[in-house]
Write a structure and sequence with these properties.
Layout: E1 3-19, H1 23-35, E2 44-52, E3 62-71, E4 83-97, H2 101-114, E5 126-131, E6 139-145
Antiparallel strand pairs: 1-3, 1-4, 2-3, 2-5, 4-6, 5-6
Domain Integron-associated effector binding protein: 19-146
Pfam families: Cass2
Protein name: Integron-associated effector binding protein domain-containing protein
Length: 148
């Protein structure tokens, strides 16, 4: 089910960059690397998050992305190489199985258009929040920024 929400995210993350075409490999590798040190994050919710700079056109080849944990509040101290960020906006969101990531994005993008909304991705990040599910593929909630 798709919905529009106004939400704030607080996260402790590691900043990464790479070619958009390589994200399918780069993002999971960066997330696994982060998890080796994730136990050092104060006030962690235990939920993994990936925050993406959106691709702004065909000539925009390299992007920035962050991997980390959502946190309940700003930590007093950050582990080496990590940073704290806050992101707040109005988003269209959808939740489903991580294995269906392409389908989730397709359904959410179609829903945004059907509702007469437009993406506000130029200056705002796209987010994915991962929810562990026992004995199943993890759930993911995708947040795409939309204009109010």
């Amino acid at each position: 089910m798709c919905k529009v929400v106004s939400q704030e995210f607080k996260a402790v993350v590691i900043k990464n960059k790479g070619l958009f075409k390589d994200y399918a490999d780069l993002v999971p590798e960066a997330a696994q690397s982060f998890l080796k040190h994730g136990h050092l994050v104060q006030h962690s919710s235990g939920l993994e998050v990936t925050i993406y700079e959106p691709k702004r056109g065909e000539d925009h080849l390299e992007g920035i992305f962050f991997v980390g944990y959502l946190v309940h509040e700003k930590p007093d101290k950050l582990p080496d190489g990590m940073e704290y960020i806050e992101v707040q906006h109005t988003y269209a969101s959808i939740r489903g199985k991580g294995a269906d990531m392409g389908g989730l994005y397709a359904r959410l993008n179609n829903w945004i258009k059907e509702q007469g909304n437009t993406q506000d991705s130029a200056d705002h990040y796209i987010l994915e929040v991962y929810y562990p599910v026992e004995n199943e593929d993890e759930d993911v909630e995708v947040y795409i920024p939309v204009k109010n």
